[in-house]
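Supplementary notes for students who missed Thursday's class. We covered one full example, reproduced here. Read the sequence, then the structure, then the short commentary at the end.
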Amino acid sequence: MRIIKYSMSKETFDNQKKYSDTLPKKYMAAGALFFNKHHELLILHPTYKDRWEICGGIVETNESPRSACEREILEEIGLSRSVGRLLCVDYSVNTEHVENLQFIFDGGVLTENEIKQIRLAIDEISSFEFIGVESKEDNEKILQRDRLGPRLIKALEAKKHNKTFYLEKGK
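Structure (token representation):
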């Protein structure tokens, strides 16, 4: 076997960097669905929004969506947990014309003890609750959650049927 060594000149590196600086940038966020033993979904009320959200947040530079999700779980509710499989990824362009990718992972079922151990990041999260997700009425409430609603419905469907969905604007 012959090994070929490749080295890049500074000029080539600089040209590649200039080129990569011109490539589109996309915003990414990652969240997780957590449930209690009654199959109710954990939702959080951020201090800076008028609506409830799932646990999660922005993916930082050079951070994977899974790592970002696990970091946000620790930051927002004080639990160190690994997330399970990817339920869905949703591509959209929001009203500010910023392209974004939203990842939702399966967080699993929180034990009674874990629920008691939840410690909210008080500067970021004001409260949490568990909501039903099984009935038609529950789904109607979830759908009222602006952009997150349709994505949540599909993530719940993915979990129920052991699937993963690629979405565009929640569809």
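Commentary. Helices lie at 10-22, 65-77, 112-117, 136-143, 148-160. The chain has a mean pLDDT of 88. If anything here is unclear, bring it to office hours.
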